[in-house]
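Escalated from tier 1: zinc ion holo job.
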Amino acid sequence: MKKEVIAKFCDQAGINDWMLHRLNRKTYNNYIRVINYHEIYLKDKRQFESHLRFYSENFSNCNYKTFEAFLRAEYSFMYKPGIMLTFDDGFKDNYENAAPLLEKYGFTGYFMVSSGLIGKKKYMSVDELMDLKKKGHVIGCHTHSHHRMSNTDSQDILNKEITKSKEILQGMIHDEVNIFCWCFGDKGSYVNSAYKTIVKSGYKYAFMTDSYPIYQRCNPMHIQRTNIQTYWDMSTVKFQLCGFMDWWFMKKRKTDEAITT
Ligand SMILES: [Zn+2]
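Tier 2 regenerated the structure:
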């Protein structure tokens, strides 16, 4: 059965709301939900805006400073959990369609870009990245060539995709790039040799996609994200956020976190 069908059923039965409420109550709202999006097509802009409206009613924005303070347990979310909206791959539509809406609702965007794709057709330019940064958004590194890590990667490849890409991005935006974001995230795409290179390259945070809320003092190299498609209706969005996916990913998450430790 399609996820959307299950999500709709759960929504109509009040299960999504009940589970989200339960998660919030259990954690005293003190967690961050990190979402990952990809393209934000013009045709999905209205739907994306309805997601943002829901987030703004039920979550608090988490800017970079708050994110760092929260991980150090120097900041707590009390009335509403935090939310971080991340966008993978550096698509131009993120700049054109997503960023203005993020600003309208007061959200910080976290844009994970591949240094080798910047300025290419359909991807953001250096000026656009600079503009996002100026507006308070955050740029993270998503390898150089949108590379899926593997056990057969030579150290040269790892240096190019992880270390060099950080330097290239930093040179472009004239600022530190502290976030690394793994590509693909499917089974087998997290490997220890790449993890070691990520640490050695000086990244402070690594973002993954095995769905789990972020808590204070959690491992900064295991920032888990929950996937959301822009075209999904609110019942599916709520289904993704209510904790079901965290349970669904439990086994994979444990494996991937063991590899990247
Ligand atoms: Zn990607």
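The mean pLDDT is 97.
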